Amino acid sequence: GDSVTQMEGPVTLSEEAFLTINCTYTATGYPSLFWYVQYPGEGLQLLLKATKADDKGSNKGFEATYRKETTSFHLEKGSVQVSDSAVYFCALFGNGFQKLVFGTGTRLLVSP
Amino acid sequence: NAGVMQNPRHLVRRRGQEARLRCSPMKGHSHVYWYRQLPEEGLKFMVYLQKENIIDESGMPKERFSAEFPKEGPSILRIQQVVRGDSAAYFCASSNAGTAQGNTIYFGEGSWLTVV
User: Fold this and answer.
1) How far apart are CA B64 and CA B87, in angstroms?
2) Contacts A93 to B, Cβ<8 Å
3) How far apart are CA B97 and CA B104, in angstroms?
4) What is the pLDDT of residues B73-99, one digit of tens each?
5) Dihedral angle computed from the Cα positions of residues B108, A40, A8 and A97, in that order, rounded to the nearest 10 degrees
6) CA of B115 to nearest chain A CA: how many angstroms apart?
7) Is B53 on the interface with A (CB under 8 A)?
8) Which range, A11-25, A43-57, A92-106, B48-62, has the best average confidence (pLDDT)?
């Protein structure tokens, strides 16, 4: 079945550092790919999405490119802030599958 | 435009009691999903419903758990005879289409169940 694999956390960075959180997927066909963010004690917020190969999703300085050849959707940000500290979830919505499949989440900790 | 609304946000139940969680989808959305997040874990799919129909309940425990999405009113996730292992955050999500490419699913803020 469909699955998502994320790098394990926590990822600890200093403010203004470059961020990469790796995400790879296994799916048949052409899934839609998403990144969600969860701040402490809150629900999930959609951060960005991409629906086809080579699409780039972007929001709030975060970017991720749908790479079909490597089945990846890595999350990047050029300069992180303390307020970016949260758990980030990669997810896919596969063709014919009527539910989001999530990775295990990656906790990001940004220090001043 | 109100988002996905869940209540209660926090619920404490004693072992053996019933927990009832409610979810009102975003306006115009007829597809509802329930997910469970155990402490320090990711989200696990439980059930997918459309109005008056359960489409996929492959993630629901076989006993004690049930879900409905009536023609009128919110979706309800019901847990009977709760046990400590049911303590988790329960998230509801909604969308305006099931399998359409490019579909986006929006989440509520969750209901945190604590069983004591």
Assistant:
1) 14
2) 103, 105
3) 8
4) 999 999 999 999 999 999 999 988 755
5) 0
6) 18
7) no
8) A11-25
